[in-house]
Amino acid sequence: MKAPKFSYIRADSLDHALELLDKHGEDARILAGGQSLMPTLNMRLSQPEVLVDINRLNDLKGISLDGDTVVIGALTRHIDVMNSDIVAEHLPLIAEAMPHVAHVAIRNRGTIGGSIALSDPAAEMPACALALGATLIVQSSSGKREIPAEEFFHGLYETARAENELLVEIRYPSQKKDNVSVFMELARRHGDYAIAGVCAYGKVSGNMVEDMRLVYFASEDRPIIGENAVAALNGKAWCDETKDAVTSALENDLDPMANLHGSATMKMHLQKVLTGRVMDTAVTRAGGAS
Question: Residue 53, exposed/middle/buried by CB under 10 A (0-12, 13-18, 19+)?
Fold first, then answer.
């Protein structure tokens, strides 16, 4: 299929891009990596009047360390995040997740900000942002505002970002020395959309889980913190009894959506399996016996 007719404008500055968003509102779409936008245009699932190309806004690119915070520009390509020494050292959860983000060609063009702003429920980067307690910085012509990841993802492709706002950077707290992180997902083929996925981040001492966050994706309409599962996990030694309690509690956290990738029952089963695997790995990485 072919895309519908639209006007194309290449923004020559951030201010220019924000002016265009003010002017066109919901009729405008941002073109960054385009790896999600272009297919939806060609299938006519998206029919904007204007595409605002921000690819030349170099101020929105880059990875830096600001004290104990890693700052990643929204226009930074996945491949640059994947190859970053800063990310590898300070954000090992993202480093572990990056090879699962689609395929090489898509990682070469897709951007981390585009993935988070789109809020695809099967995407890895929104889940990682939630697990790490990231802060999303959005900007409009009237200024910037900070949105905690816990408040950013509202539903299927819905976020707290307003129509005239642009996601400009993501700020991640560096992983604490005593913490561990684990990323796992299941897909039919490596690089395909995830069917189930879990991000784990927190403190484990030996076999004792003290402060763990479990974030689930690819089964709900957005990434979800497994609050009941976490309550059954923290303060406990990881063992078969704890695993049973955690996976049982997970049924009160998740309400999987059935789709072409599987039934709700199957997705719940897979999330439970991944929870056990993720925690076995976390305990092993912390020096305990899984």
Answer: middle
46 and 68 inside one domain: no
Q: Which helix (H) or strand (E) holds 256?
A: none
The label of the residue with tokens 């560096």 reads: 174
Whether the per-residue pLDDT at 266 is higher than 80: the answer is: yes
Is 166 in the same domain as 208? no
What pTM does this model have? Answer: 0.96
Q: Say how far apart CA 243 and CA 189 lie, in whole Å.
A: 27
Residues in the chain: 290
Judge whether 219 lies within some domain. yes
Structural tokens at position 222: 């957005």
Confidence of residue 290 (pLDDT cuts 50, 70, 90): low
Domain holding 162, by residue range, is: 58-173
| Eight-class DSSP state of 58 | G
